[in-house]
Predict the structure of 4-diphosphocytidyl-2-C-methyl-D-erythritol kinase.
Amino acid sequence: TEAWRPDDDRTRPASGPVRVRVPAKINLHLAVGPARADGYHDLTTVYHAVSLCDELTARPGDTLTLTMAGEGTGQLALDDSNLIIRAVRALAAHTGRPAQARLHLRKQIPLAAGLAGGSADAAAALIACDALWGTGLTRDQLGGVAAQLGSDVPFLVHGGTALGTGRGEVVSPVLARPTTWHWVLAVADGGLATPRVYAALDDLRAAGTAPAPLAAPDDLLGALRQRDPRVLAGTLGNDLEAAALSLRPALAATLAAGTAAGALAGLVSGSGPTCVFLAGDAAHAAALATRLEADGGCRYAVPVHGPMPGARIA
Ligand code: C5P
């Protein structure tokens, strides 16, 4: 059974607009292997979906159009290069439907921030058009289309807290207590291009100046089965952090400001430049965000919580 829509509805086209909410992701653990022949890196990662969300609305149309408002408007191309448009075309090809929809994106997740915003929007487009067209794919079938679009897209279809392997596209849920974790995202001015950050890690490793790679995430997976953020704090890690810091040295000051403000832990999110801080509870996260806005050297800081469900009809 599929949680996001009653079974008997999934193969009927929607009668009105379909609105989908999709979360941003952080990586609680991101272990990066050597570069592969196809240019990707093998990963072991623990994804975690957090409550900073984009919203995609799909309406019936004779063509495929995309408009947007909010974060990144004017900086994000809305043509065929946009991952939302590519997702709709991939779903249309997979299901034999014409790629027709009028899409509107309300964006809060910043661009090129290490939060997988573009991947989130692609996941939202798959869920939205599946419902709009009544193609009734299972979440696993949608995950298969998602994997063609980008390494993080399958996770954003599934959400929660999940182990990612392969280049990140092989996703399996992790056993965790039903606990809410509280975080602060410190969003930097300007983005970082993901391929540059992976290449910078390859360079640091070739020069022998990269930190030792992360071991298997056993301690993290153990901490997720407890409820103590102090235990979780000691188990977070990201191999891309040194690379992001080499490209953006100012992030070190943001990380230091979070620690000085009392964060239980701080690390770079994914390929950065967003920094993420673990808080003890919601009030602690709100206080940390206020402090980071004042002296964290970031564009803004926002308290979030996780895990959140993946892309789903609002
Ligand atoms: O899969 P996605 O298109 O999101 O990846 C963007 C870029 O990030 C890739 O082209 C590659 O340079 C880098 N990447 C990588 N190894 C991964 C995931 C991404 O090198 N596992």
Remarks:
- Residues 117-133 form the longest helix (17 residues).
- The chain has ten helices and twelve strands.
- The chain has two domains: 7-174, 181-306.
- Residues 39-41, 43, 150-152, 167-168, 194-195, 198 surround cytidine-5'-monophosphate (CB under 6 Å).
